[in-house]
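Morning!

This is the sequence you dropped in the shared folder:
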Amino acid sequence: MIDVLFSHSYYYQMDSKQWDTGMPYPPLGTIYAAGFLRENNLKVNLFDVGLRNNPKEIMPVLKESKPTFLVLYDDGFNYLTKMCLTNMREAAFEMIQMAKSEGCKVIVSSSDSTDHFAQYLDKGADVVLLGEGEISLLETINKMIANGSLEEVKGIAFALKGEIKNNGRRSVIRELDTLPQPAWDLIDVEAYKQAWTSRLPFALNIATTRGCPYKCNWCAKPIYGNRYNSRSPERVVQEIKYLVETYGVSNFWMCDDIFGLKPNWVQEFDLLLKKESIKIGFKIQSRADLLLKENSIDALVSSGLKEVWLGAESGSQSILDAMDKGTTIEQIEESTRLLQRKGVRVAFFIQYGYLGETKTDINKTIDLIKRAKPDDIGISVSYPLPGTKFYETVKTQLTGKKNWTDSNDLAMMFSGTFNQEFYKKLHSYTHKIFQRTKGIQAVKKVFKNPLKADRVQLKLIAKLPYYLILGMKEEKELAKMENSNENKF
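The structure's back. Tokens below.
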């Protein structure tokens, strides 16, 4: 039987911001592909690098197991892999070269390799899968085993007699229920539990869909594209039941780009969980407009929703419109209010530096955070990714650095209104404003009900002077930077 060793190139410990959050997740896309090959009678194993810190750790495994194929298959459900971080790219290159030195055939699947397949082939990869990879992977391996021609396989790029062949993209899988359950048995779930240092309960990641039909012009979809395909609620509940019973896990990160978009899906999901007497907590990513449809919030809360990450992006409607976001400030505020009233935590993704953003737009974003009072925020700056309208607009400016080193890089790689140092200071200042807002909220709550004060509220109040003083200091620094030509492009 042919041996296939799976791995991937996202090392949490090489991305300090993400490692420090203390919430590592297993490589879901990787074990989906492994499960698919195993169902098709191939012998598979996994060298999971998620909790490791050095690509060289794979070498003893390659020497001992001597796999016929090494498949570097990144988790396309993890938004961090879409950022094509150079730390992870270099790790992938190193793993490719080690595998080739041991005589392995190497196949690669990732957002970065889809966008830059020539670089991966140049580093020694035999084949790069383009986009969604399970079917292309199986056909590629079967062809290579039989010494057949790869020119007949859709969805791959490879080198033939010194020339790179691009066979074009394969249509995405529409009937997701035809895929087997991810090969969870290949994951050391206990190791992930031990590595989980977040104050939140340990959670595993599940995908209920693939793709996103919305067309935000800065958002890349190199793996699953703009088609939106959904698993049935029955299959999702079946997987949840397995994970609850096998690993004792009752909290989940629904890692879809957009959760619950298909009409009545959430309502059916809620009924099936109750039918199976399964009680879970979960967090999702969603859109403000989607959450306001029908009784979506009620059904989500009933099924166990604990936290929503909203793509708020900006407090300026003109910036949202420029992004082709399709949401309004009013929808962001209304969905936040309704969710928090139901006891659901709401977090905002915030993006600074989009083309045309002014200081007035920035102030509107800060005002939105003050008004809406999200429970958490994640701040980034606009990041050009291949395949997007935004990238096409600024690509002539990308003459030097084209990717971040890690997710905390925050480099401005095109000419925005202000330069990189300004946006890094703005990143820090916005977090101070956020913490200050939470501290003031805590003061009001404790003043209203002093006997119900808890440790979290008291901690926020104790830190309030620090954020007040530091926030004022950084506000002055930003004003000075704003007026300096050195801090403008």
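Headline: The first helix runs from residue 16 to 21.

More detail when I'm at my desk.
O.
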